[in-house]
Specification:
Elements: H1 2-17, E1 20-26, H2 34-46, E2 51-59, H3 61-69, E3 75-79, E4 89-91, E5 102-108, H4 121-124, E6 128-132, H5 137-143, E7 147-151, H6 154-162, E8 169-172, H7 176-183, E9 190-192, E10 196-199, E11 204-208, H8 213-229, H9 231-238, H10 244-247, E12 255-258, H11 266-269
Parallel strand pairs: 1-2, 6-7, 10-12
Antiparallel strand pairs: 3-11, 4-11, 5-8, 5-9, 5-10
C-alpha cells in the first residue's frame, strides 16, 4: 500500500511540475510555423517534461515580444536583431542554419539580362533593392554600398518590383518562392532571379526572458542534441516553411556574393561554425 501511495504521489507531482512553454500565434500561423516545430523538437531532444503550446491570441512580432517580457508568453523566434540583446536572452543557435542570410532576388523578368554578368558587390551596387520598413537587413545592405528603398508591407514591395519601381527584392532562400507565389497575383512578369545569391551573417534565433535559466538550459541542450543526431537538419529539409531552400533555390550553383554585417554581437560571433549552412 505504501509503495502504491508513493507511486501515485510521484505521478501527481510530476504532472503538476511539467511546465507549459507558451509560444506566440504569430500572424495566425503559430501552429504551422517552423519555430513551433523547432521548439517541440528541442524539448523532445532535451529529455525535458516540458510541453509547447500555442497561445490562442493572434499577434504580430512586436506584441509577441511585449508578452514575453511581461510573462504572458515564454519564447519567440525571429531573425537576428542586435537590439534585442539585453532586452531578452538570445539562444545563439540558428534554427535555420543561417539560410535566412542567403538572399535570392524577386525581379521583373526584364532585369535578368541586366544582372547576367554580375559577379561581386560592386557590380551589384547600381541596382536598387527593396526592403520592408524597419527591417534589420537595411543596415547590412547600405553598409556595403547598396541602394535601398522601402515600403511598409511585402505585398507592396512585390507590386513595386513588378512595376520596375526598384530592381531587386532580396528574401531568404527559405521564403522567397513562397512569398512570390502568395503575393504575385496576376504579375506574370515576376520571377526569382536565377544566377545570384547574396550572403551575409544572419539567422533565425529563439529569444526568452533574461532570468529564465530553466528554459535556456533546455533549449541549448535540445537544439545541440537535434543538430548532432541530424533531426534538426531533417526538419529544415522537410518543413514547408524551409524546404524550398533545399529543393528550389539551387544555392550551390549560384554566384555567391558575400557581404559583412556591421551589427553582429559578441554572442553571434561566438557561434560554432558547424551551425552555418554550407551547400
Amino acid at each position: 500500500m505504501k509503495i502504491i501511495t508513493l507511486l501515485l504521489l510521484s505521478v501527481l507531482f510530476s504532472s503538476v511540475s511539467a511546465r507549459e512553454i507558451r509560444y506566440p500565434n504569430l500572424d495566425g500561423i503559430g501552429q504551422q510555423s517552423i519555430g513551433l516545430a523547432m521548439l517541440k523538437l528541442a524539448i523532445e531532444k532535451s529529455g525535458s517534461d516540458m510541453t509547447a503550446i500555442v497561445d490562442s491570441n493572434e499577434v504580430n512580432q512586436n506584441r509577441a515580444r511585449q508578452l514575453v517580457e511581461n510573462g504572458q508568453l515564454d519564447i519567440f523566434d525571429t531573425g537576428f536583431d542586435e537590439t534585442l540583446d539585453g532586452r531578452f536572452k538570445p539562444i545563439y543557435l540558428p534554427i535555420d542554419l543561417g539560410l535566412t542570410g542567403w538572399r535570392l532576388f524577386i525581379i521583373h523578368q526584364d532585369t535578368q539580362a541586366k544582372v547576367e554578368n554580375v559577379k561581386n558587390v560592386s557590380q551589384l551596387s547600381p541596382f536598387v533593392m527593396g526592403q520592408g520598413q524597419g527591417w534589420g537587413d537595411i543596415r547590412i545592405l547600405e553598409a556595403s554600398g547598396l541602394k535601398v528603398t522601402t515600403a511598409p508591407r511585402i505585398e507592396i514591395l512585390i507590386k513595386m518590383v513588378g512595376g520596375k519601381r526598384f530592381d531587386l527584392f532580396p528574401l531568404g532562400a527559405t521564403e522567397v518562392h513562397q512569398f512570390l507565389e502568395t503575393y504575385r497575383g496576376n504579375q506574370k512578369q515576376l520571377m526569382v532571379e536565377n544566377q545570384l545569391v547574396l550572403i551575409y551573417p544572419y539567422g533565425r534565433f529563439f529569444y526568452i526572458r533574461n532570468n529564465d535559466k530553466e528554459l535556456s538550459d533546455v533549449m541549448h541542450k535540445g537544439l545541440e542534441a537535434a543538430f548532432e543526431d541530424g533531426s534538426l537538419q531533417e526538419l529544415l529539409i522537410n518543413h514547408p516553411f524551409s524546404s524550398d531552400a533545399f529543393t528550389k533555390a539551387n544555392l550551390a550553383e549560384r554566384t555567391h556574393i558575400r557581404i559583412p554585417s556591421p551589427t553582429l554581437t559578441e554572442g553571434f560571433k561566438a557561434i560554432d561554425n558547424k551551425w552555418w549552412y554550407v551547400p
